[in-house]
Design brief:
359 residues, alpha/beta, Rossmann fold, 3 domains, 18 helices, globular, disordered N terminus, binds 1,3-dihydroxyacetonephosphate, binds iron/sulfur cluster
Length: 359
């Protein structure tokens, strides 16, 4: 490191990028060089090293959602995945401390499944527009309005809401969960678009709530048609939190991990992932030769999590996520019911609606 960049690092409060760190981190940089600019690496590398050292010291594991930035996803995460995978892995974690690199509802889910472990989130304000769209009281009112109709709740909700529910679901198992109940009608909360997309794949009547993901609701069918016009052979993958007309235009719809598996297994020449934009970077690092067109819709909540905040979280053991034990017991039952009901389905194959239809 030059004297000038040492001074810049000291002035900004950033950790120092020493020649030793540069050497130790070089193999990792090789893996992410196509998605992290060289000029940014001297900032990330010392944090990655410090976090990984402290993780070992504190017997901590880092669970990171697929939307985390590449330096987190590839640099410090021990377990990565979609919401279902993270929930399942959280139930199996063998560590004293879980650091959740994702949003608050994910950390709460980890706490529900690990009541005796310390669960930390590097920024307590990392929320979610879907989780904010509904309260436990709203669910009680819905139950009064629709007596006897089971409540299927997307994991993107608070523990209070999960506690009022019969079973949870994620984008990768929603159809399976709805059908597992063996009823004609379900309440599916809070994501209206996920509910509408599921309704197209089942005969069960779905009563939806009006929550929306602020990232996915911004995509339009016209945008997808424009991608196809500019890139005639492009493969379009969409998340089911997108409006139904967007999902209709896609070649494949599935959870974040289902989309990742699609790209890894089928290696399309050109692809657009209609979802939060860090995910394309994370997959691109592992799939050379695939050309990603990247619409940049960022989730402001996911982006609250940064390397300096993760390090601070481990150093100070903050912010700790807690759930009232009475709420936790009922919310845990909904999450566990989902884990039990969701068989390890070949997700990419089952959700590939358009390709199946044309096969
Ligand atoms: P999945 O990773 O379960 O597909 O969820 C996407 C999402 O928006 C998480 O906040
Ligand atoms: Fe919530 Fe959407 Fe952000 Fe996921 S991407 S955390 S659903 S706001």
């Amino acid at each position: 490191m030059t004297t000038t960049s040492k001074t810049a690092a000291a002035e900004s409060g950033a950790l120092e990028y020493t020649p030793e760190i540069a050497k130790e981190m070089a193999p990792l940089y090789e893996r992410v060089a196509n998605v992290i600019p060289e000029i940014e690496w001297p900032f990330h590398a010392p944090y990655i090293k410090a976090i990984n050292d402290l993780k070992r010291e504190k017997n901590a594991v880092i669970l990171a959602h697929n939307y985390q930035t590449p330096e987190i996803f590839h640099g410090v995460a021990d377990i990565v995945g979609d919401s279902l995978q993270l929930a399942k892995e959280a139930a199996e974690v063998d560590a004293d401390v879980i650091v959740q690199c994702g949003v608050h509802f994910m950390a709460e889910t980890s706490k529900l499944l690990n009541p005796n472990k310390t669960v930390l989130i590097p920024d307590m304000k990392a929320g979610c527009s879907l989780a904010a769209s509904i309260t436990g009281r709203d669910v009680r009112l819905l139950r009064e309005k629709y007596p006897g109709v089971p409540v299927v709740t997307y994991v993107n909700t608070s523990a209070d809401v999960k506690a009022e529910s019969d079973i949870c679901c994620t984008s990768s198992n929603a159809v399976q969960i709805v059908e597992s109940l063996g009823v004609d009608r379900v309440l599916m909360i809070p994501d209206e678009y996920l509910a509408l997309n599921v309704a197209k794949q089942t005969d069960v009547e779905i009563i939806a709530w009006h929550g929306r993901c602020e990232v996915h609701e911004r995509f339009s069918a016209e945008e997808i048609r424009n991608y196809r016009e500019g890139h005639p052979n492009i493969i379009v993958l969409a998340h089911p939190e997108c409006p139904p007309e967007v999902v209709e235009e896609a070649d494949f719809a599935g959870s974040t991990s289902a989309m990742i598996n699609y790209v890894k297994e089928r290696r399309p020449r050109q692809v657009v992932m209609v979802t939060e934009c860090s995910m394309s970077d994370n997959v691109a690092a592992e799939t050379p030769g695939v050309d990603f067109i990247r619409p940049c819709n960022l989730c402001p909540h996911m982006k609250r999590i940064t390397l300096p905040k993760i390090l601070h979280s481990l150093q100070t053991m903050t912010d700790e996520v807690t759930v009232d034990p009475i709420v936790a017991e009922r919310a845990r039952a909904s999450v566990e019911a989902m884990i039990e009901a969701s068989a390890p389905a070949p997700i990419a194959a089952t959700l590939d609606h358009r390709l199946q239809a044309s096969a």
